[in-house]
Amino acid sequence: MRAVVLLSGGLDSYTAAAIAKDQRFVLCALTIDYGQRHAREVAAARAIARALGVERHIELAIDLRAFGGSSLTSIDPVPHGRDLDASGIPSTYVPARNTIFLSLALGWAETLDARDIVIGVNALDYSGYPDCRPEFIAAFERLAALATRAGVEGGRFRVHTPLLTLGKADIIRRGVELGLDYGLTHSCYDPSPHGRPCGSCDSCVLRAKGFREAGVPDPVLLR
Question: Which of 25, 94, 120, 159 is 20 to 30 Å from the Cα of 15, by its Cα?
Answer without folding.
Answer: 94
